[in-house]
Amino acid sequence: MTGPTPSPRQEDPAARALTVLVADDQEIVRTGLSMILGVQDGIEVVGEVADGAAAVELAQRLRPDVCLFDIRMPVIDGIEATRMLAGPGVADPLAVVVITTFDLDEYVYAALRAGARGFLLKDAGPALLAQAVRAAANGDALIAPSVTTRLLRAFADVGPAAPPTQPLDPLTAREEEVLRAVARGRTNTEIAHELFVTLSTVKSHVANLMTKVGARNRVEVALWAYDTGRVRTGPS
């Protein structure tokens, strides 16, 4: 006798397609993003919506692996939609990736504060878009040096809503090195090569950093690094 068929959320992620919900008020952009993702191996777009309220409702009902949200949407904007699905008070947060245009939109910084796991430019291209979705689904966050770090630098002077949390246990010298690398947009593999350590060692350091600074993902680790002055603002 065979057992019950597991639900999609219970299956091994490696054995099924990653599900994505796309929300953008511009039909041509929404359709384009869905088409790009739809031809990627292992990625399936399960919904498209044109406003933030519909995005939140559908996301809560479908529980996709990743939500891809525009910032400026009617009814509820992308920031509030992100906060409702991935904010600090959400018991079972969803992974949200925010997309925006490269106009140094003041809402990007707020979106990261609201719980976004990463963000992209709308012209990022198929490879980076797929990379961001896979990273978010794996519990990681895409911090591309040409995108995220530049915007983080631009908005670092805005400052956090409250003084940044200081770790009870001081960071080790190696953790400080890893912290600065994460804030500069380096991947775990790049950090391992730079510091001449194994990939598992880097992952362990990143996990320790998240615990010590109270961050839920790499984006929050990077924000904390800027908030505390570990990484200085200014040109690349």
Element pattern in H and E: EHEHEHEHEHHHHHH
The Cα radius of gyration reads 18 Å
What is the beta-strand fraction?
5-15%
Number of strands: 5
Main-sheet strand order equals: 2-1-3-4-5
Mean pLDDT across the residues is 82
Strand count, sense and barrel status of the largest sheet are: 5 strands, parallel
Instruction: State the end-to-end CA separation.
Output: 62 Å
Number of helices: 10
Helix content: 40-55%
Principal-axes shape call? globular
Describe the structure.
The chain has about 240 residues and is an alpha/beta fold. It is built from 10 helices and 5 strands; from the N terminus they run βαβαβαβαβαααααα. The protein has a 5-stranded parallel sheet, sandwiched between helices. α4 (about 105-115) links the parallel β4 (about 95-100) and β5.
